[in-house]
User: What shape does this take?
Amino acid sequence: MSDAPANRSERYDRRDPAGRRQRNRLFAGACVSVAALAVCVLVVLVASVALRGAGRLDLAFLTGANSEAVAEDAGFGPAIVGSLCLMMICALAAIPLGVGTALLLEEYAPRKRLLRWFHGVVQANITNLAGVPSIVYGILGYTALATMFNAVGSPDTPGFSFGARYVAEYRDLSNQSVFVGLDNAQAALPPASAGLAYFADADLSERLATQVVTAEEIDPMRAELTGALDGVERRFRTALRAAQPDGQRGPVRVTRELAAQIAGELFDGLELQGDLTAYRELAQAQLMKMDGLSGLDLLPVRRALVNDLRDMEFAAAGARGVLEAGAEPQRRQVRAWYYFQAPFGRSVLTGGLTLALVVLPIVIVSSQEAIRAVPSSQRDAALALGGTQWQSIEQVVLPTAVPGICTGTILAMSRAIGEAAPILLLAFSFIQFTPVFREGGSLMDAFTAMPLQVFQWTSNPGDAFQSTTAAGILVLLAVLLSFNAVAVFLRYRFQGPR
Amino acid sequence: MTAMIQAPPQPASTESCDSAAPALPETPADAQIEVERLDGFYGQAQALHGLSLSIARNQTTAFIGPSGCGKSTLLRWINRMNDLIPAARATGQVRIDGQDILAHGTDVVELRRRVGIVFQKPNPFPKSVYDNVAFGPRLHYRLSRSETDALVERSLRGAALWEEVKDRLKDSAFGLSGGQQQRLCIARAIAVEPQVLLMDEPCSALDPKSTVAIEDLMAELKQRYTIAIVTHNMQQAARASDYTGFLYEGRLVEFGPTQRVFSSPTQTRTEDYIAGRFG
Amino acid sequence: MPRARSTRLRWFRERGILAGLVLCGVATVAVTGLIVFILARETSTFFGQALTPTHGDPARTVEVSLGDFFGDLTWSPNAPVDARFGIWPLIGGTLQVAGVAMAFAIPFGLMSAIWLSEYAPARVRAVLKPVLEIIAGVPTVVFGFFALTVITPALQMRFWQVPEIDPSTGQPLLGADGQPLTAPLLADWVSGYNALAAGLAVGVMCLPIVTSLTEDALRAVPRALREGSYGMGASRFETATRVVFPAALSGVVAACLLAVARAVGETMIVAIAAGASALALSDRGPGRLLALGQDTQTMTGFLVQVFKGDIAHGGVAYQACYAVALTLFVMTLFLTVLGGVIRQRFGQRYE
Assistant: This one.
């Protein structure tokens, strides 16, 4: 066997070395182009979005509320605040749960068979959770958190709540709400016939303590006001007729001087609560609009003038709260900032917790990796000095693992901030208010979020919302990039050469 | 100096007795590999300092020395395995049959076909025994089924493994014992018919019985291959090699016929090392 | 002599902490349990019950059986009469999108992973890895927008407008302003919403997943194997494809399965870019699957359609979404479990 010549191999058919080299180069070239393609996709994506959206990116967009109909008016404010609130809750829920589970899996290796089985189940379960489509989490959040299986009341009539006060709500003439405080949800509503008044510029707490005005007091007030304004209208007509040459019915010629003269006469001898100069200016402006009009055309202008004057008078008198007699009051909830209820409803809290479940596997796995990276010799050293398991974790493992845990958690949060599917069922993309950070806001507020708003805009037919959508995406990407930047910084800061 | 050269405890093989010459010259007469003023660096750190030596054709040359003395680095430059380490570079010359393989433009693929290497830890591929051995030949040659079969059998016989694995050629190589795995790696290396076989501490991860088997194998292999072996085991160097080089802190302290180096070293450091005073 | 800490207190604290951690573990398991419970409970109220139709006369209730669900080839939950609930069109739509996505992501992902792990200089890798991470972190609504506003126009070749011809008269169609109407060159083959663009966007989204998981698997292959291969005179290409890649195969397959699971479960991209009409499988059968340029609906797409309020709550279509979600859940669970099993069974452990 062994006596063959050393260069025996030469009798085999050699593969062409040049061909092999070339195949190697070809493959490397193909790979480079693929990798370059990935970078190109990112560049095209960012460029296409930036080109479309940069024009819309201004302060009004960042702070304004959404508009369903007019793309130019649509703002991103509630969505930005909503997303940040979701992040807070998500982090607060996911970090302890995730790190706790990771510690259990990595640091408490069980010896008993039952516990070992439990360990295996938890570990396998995490892998499976990571694969569950995020929209399924939405169903989970809706059923288990928003409605709680309808086991404790419904979201609208919660079985458990605190931090809410109840008020009776009335409507005044201009259809604004007037509140009267109630002792509790069950307290009887004050009868509507009693009527209410409030002061337009008083703040909410004062309004809630408004005195109750009786019907007897209201009627004279209203009569006086209506009478006064009727008088104005009558005088207006007379003054105008007088201004027309020869009592003709043709078009009126209203000069600046004439308008000033009529406006002055209008309020002659009247006692009104407001500043007469302001009334005169208003009347003068309306009169100027009548220039060249005649007959029926005059009517709308005149009506507008009367309405304007009535509004001014109402506001000035502080009597806007005069109520329609007989309007039934509604019971309304006024929530403190710490308001809490037991079926969470479709609220910020539900959204945040649902997102926490979505990113939980990411937090767990990255924490596990960070914990595993702590050399076991360090643990052994802590235990050998007589430390308990928890002391070794607290003093040795966690301090070393924290940067890694933070990096993973931030990446998980950036995943959460971009998720739209799980909160689709929980959010209200049309809300106009800023959730949580508003008067009467709480964690139980309805919310919208950046990706959801973007989704809602993309579903609008036509191209009207394209630049708005792109601007929203730019904001979203900016937030994400800053998250990523922090994570990358942390990684390089703490995982560099040690 | 006059004693018998056959250091290895003789196996049944008789062929290796033929090379029993009275004494080897200080410098090999027929050098296949000539290393000249070789400086090796890892980044800023210099691992080899101006090494010059010759490796004799169809002989076994052993390199000994304490850990970190550069003996593995030297070996890995001979077939440019160090190319895989981004920070590694070398100056000087390593000539194989007169051709400087450190020169720019050397076809490393062709070089490594001619200069095989066996590593410290057995590293079979996660494939069958058969596919492990056939891996190299398939890279370089277009082989028919029967040619491959013959080549695999010949290589496994050459590595003294055939009898043990002939019934499990299709089984995973990971099922073999450590010693068998290492012999499989040798079979794999000789399957491409190299001219030189480099062995980087081939027995350090093995039990004594497997070590003996591999040393026996080396004695047989040197009939056809030039062998360079790195070892930290001086007995092994004494038993299995014809020439020995002692490296210390990246410098070649002493080089010569094994018998001479071990019996009458010229340098005190070599003597101290051989006597076990350090390292 | 400093006073020793109370050992009993310590013992209680240790126990308490362990109990808390076990509770965390139980909570994670409970999440899966709850998902299964909710989906199963709600699905059971979908089958074999008399439910109000989504549209049309509420008195004419609809009843769906398990046989209909898996036996029918038509999905028309909103039809006023004869609403049909065969899941196959939705599964077909999901397969279309996931198929396109994988056809893009797997070859490209594997190649870039091999390149990153075997070829790329450290400095390039240090740049490319974060880029991949950023792509992986881009929200899927953004990819959806990308599909709708960049990929679809590109597929339609929208930059190349041709006049529209009235098929009956052969005359060019005129708009309200008297100008001839134009349409993108390929508008007949690629509609505004289509499976192809959505699939490509999902593929782009999956690319970093495939790449980074595969690269992890490749890098887990010990150096020694690479050295063994190079030592025998293999080129980089040969080492990568014949030694490293096969050695990492189980991890690679698991990575691909995970990407498939992601593509199957991907929601927002398909909701934005794929349209909302389920495949008409009963029309032309499975061949319909190849009409990638037309709009389609996936399982997740249907869920979005229901959840964003296009379909009234409480009706039969609303209940149907739980059955669809359960099907989706089972599919992705199967894929993840399969991936795990492959990694466990065929994964090579190197010390």
User: Anything to note?
Assistant: The interface with chain C takes residues 79, 81, 84, 86, 109-114, 116-119, 121, 123-127, 135-136, 139-140, 174, 185, 188-189, 192 of chain B (CB under 8 Å). The two ends of chain B are 26 Å apart (CA to CA). Residues 1-21 of chain B have pLDDT under 50 and may be disordered. The longest strand of chain B covers residues 31-42.
